[in-house]
Design goal:
about 450 residues; mainly beta; 6-stranded parallel sheet; globular; 19-stranded mixed sheet
Length: about 450
Amino acid sequence: MKFKLALLFLISFCCFAQNDSFPSAKVNEIVKQIQVPKFPSFKIEVTKLGAKGDSISNAKPAFDKAMALCKKNNGGTIIVPKGIYTLNGPIHFVSNVNLHLEEGAKIRFGSNPKDYQLVLTSWEGTMLYNYSPLIYANNVENIAITGNGIIDGEAKNTWIKWKSLEKKDQLLTREMNHKNTPIKERIFGEGHYLRPQLIQFFNSKNILIEDVQIEDSPFWCIHLLKSKSITIRGLTYNAHNNNNDGIDPEYSSDILIENILFDNADDNVAIKAGRDDEGRSNSNTPSENIVIRNCAFKGLHAIVIGSEMSAGVRNVYVENNKFRGYLKRGIFIKTNSDRGGFVKDIYFNNLAFGKVEDCIYITANYHGEGSGLFSSKVSDIYFSNISCVEATNTGIVIEGFPDKKVANIKLDHVTIQSAKNGMTITNTENVRTNEVIIGEKATTPTAVK
């Protein structure tokens, strides 16, 4: 079926049942079960252990000593006073530690790969051994990064140069994934060019990141990998390198993201759950129970699900957010016929976007490199009270698989003031709409079932 409207695109086919409204009770339940970490009374200033905030001296030995003292005392707070602290190597967390950056404090990282030992990590959805993320935690609990200081990856003139060299290794990681190469044999590091993440919490729980500013990451800024019970709030981003995603939950659950000022060269929040064969083998650990609220978006895309989502993504609640600058797409859900898995029970409510290329974009045609035998199931996605000033390309795009259609999509009170194209719907079923308005500059929207 095709239809054409020239000036005003207004659909009011049906009204929604009460259970279609934004499920605030479920959001409250998720937030309530997230544990914010508490810490023992022990405190230590890194300057008392030899750190000099002069931007030149290597402060890593002092930070390592502080972490060791906290471990000896069953936890505590590491205080970073005003100053610029250069660390030639990573910070590795132990349990029950709060890394607290006071006003005027900056942590900046050196970029000699030899200073970063190999650790078990993940790179674009494939587990492997690579250079340690600059701040890293593995199998710990009750940890935090707080305060009004700055975490600076110092990557724009160093690590970022690997972007043009990484393709061979990127393809190798995907080949290892598809061939189920044992993880112990997936060794990268010297002679390879996979950039490390700035902050990665792996297999950990009860995590807080609060109020700090994030700058100049080598790769993804904050990567939440196989972790749970996480609060991220009050952050400010100034991260403009390639692949500087703001927050990437992967195989992770029970997450609150709120009051963030994003300014990223890539996705603001990108929810993931593993890639292809490996992701499907971890189907018992989907990314789920994620709340994103009261944030201001600026970057490539605001909210993204995928494309690495093979273990599944469900129970995501996005509410009361707005734009603060350029975005290519507001909401972007992407998969392909290599992924498998599912995306379901996703709720968007009260979001305001400015000028974008596309406001809402759901696609099963994102590029992949496998056999094309694993279609994803995308269903039960709810949009309400969405506004957008202008879509320079298309207001709403929904593209499913011919053999596995995008199903049960509900659009309620969506207003796009102007758009080059209104709405395109392909390979879908049960798309329900109420008060969807694409304004007077919209031209030739089409829908295909």
